[in-house]
């Protein structure tokens, strides 16, 4: 499986997301490497279909697809943890579910 | 601006159109509508404002609304109304001059000023994105006329969206 983490330097959340992603990959017995892709411009954000940092892609598909028409730009992505709290990083259990769906 | 420096005075409009600035012990909290860090700490900071009524608490949104329309003055007004009002004012720093003068880096980025407008704490609300302990520790000291033991921490959040 191709695992990508797209990030933008304006958000400090990608190291935590990378750590969560790599941990869950190990726990799921998956040995795929995570490819890091830095998004540096709005033009690149549109080209990469990047709705905000961090974004995880699995085999080219957003692990957490947003609403149709969601803009692509240099921004920080808003996630919801399973307890309902707003978070700059996805819930690790949601990462696990996404990996299982994609594997 | 370093700890102990006198912070710049300012007057910025809040969502009711009233101009406000530091007065007495003050928290200047640079924040915004669209950043998950700012949103995650939002409820905690509202509670700090409720718990310290003797402190002037000013939330200031400095972000470029042209590139980030969710941070426009209109969007700020709509948000405060949608949330049933806030216990503290929400100010618009349209020119970004106040954010630049304070050296704000992120949303949130907090500045606690004493009654002489001297900077006594600068940084994050806490190390935990659910908590506000660092800010509360600083306020407990400053309202007593003392200097906080932890005067500076690294602000954590989305970068301030400067105009280009």
Task: Describe the model.
The complex is a heterodimer of chains A (103) and B (164). With 103 residues, chain A is an alpha+beta fold. Chain A has one domain (3-102): 3-Layer(aba) Sandwich (Glutaredoxin), CATH 3.40.30. Chain A has helices spanning 14-27, 42-48, 92-102; strands at 3-7, 34-38, 55-58, 61-62, 79-80, 86-87. In chain A, the strands form two sheets. Chain A has a four-stranded mixed sheet, with helices on one face. Chain A has a two-stranded antiparallel ribbon with strand order 5-6. In chain A, a hairpin with a 5-residue loop joins strand 5 and strand 6. The model of chain A has no long low-confidence stretch (mean pLDDT 95). Chain B has four helices and nine strands. In chain B, strands 5-4-3-7-8 form a five-stranded mixed sheet. The model of chain B has no long low-confidence stretch (mean pLDDT 97). Classes of the chains: A alpha+beta (103), B alpha/beta (164). Chains A and B meet through strand 6 of A and helix 1 and strand 9 of B.
Distance between the termini of chain B: 23 Å
Averaged pLDDT of chain A, please? 95
- Which protein chains are joined by the largest interface, and how many residues does each one contribute? A-B, 15 and 16 residues
Query: How helix-rich are the residues of chain B, as a percent range?
Result: 25-40%
As a percent range, the share of helical residues of chain A equals 25-40%
Can you summarize this structure?
The complex is a heterodimer of chains A (103) and B (164). By secondary structure, chain A is an alpha+beta fold.
List the main descriptive attributes of the protein structure presented here.
heterodimer; A: 103 residues; alpha+beta; Glutaredoxin; four-stranded mixed beta sheet; two-stranded antiparallel ribbon; 3 helices; 31% helix; 19% strand; globular; B: 164 residues; alpha/beta; five-stranded mixed beta sheet; 4 helices; 9 strands; 20% strand
Helices, strands, pairings?
The complex is a heterodimer of chains A (103) and B (164).
Chain A lengths: L2 E5 L6 H14 L6 E5 L3 H7 L6 E4 L2 E2 L16 E2 L5 E2 L4 H11 L1
Parallel strand pairs in A: 1-2
Antiparallel strand pairs in A: 1-3, 3-4, 5-6
Chain B lengths: L11 E2 L5 E2 L5 E5 L5 H16 L4 E6 L11 H10 L7 E3 L4 H6 L3 E2 L1 E5 L5 E5 L9 H11 L14 E2 L5
Parallel strand pairs in B: 3-4, 4-5
Antiparallel strand pairs in B: 1-2, 3-7, 6-9, 7-8
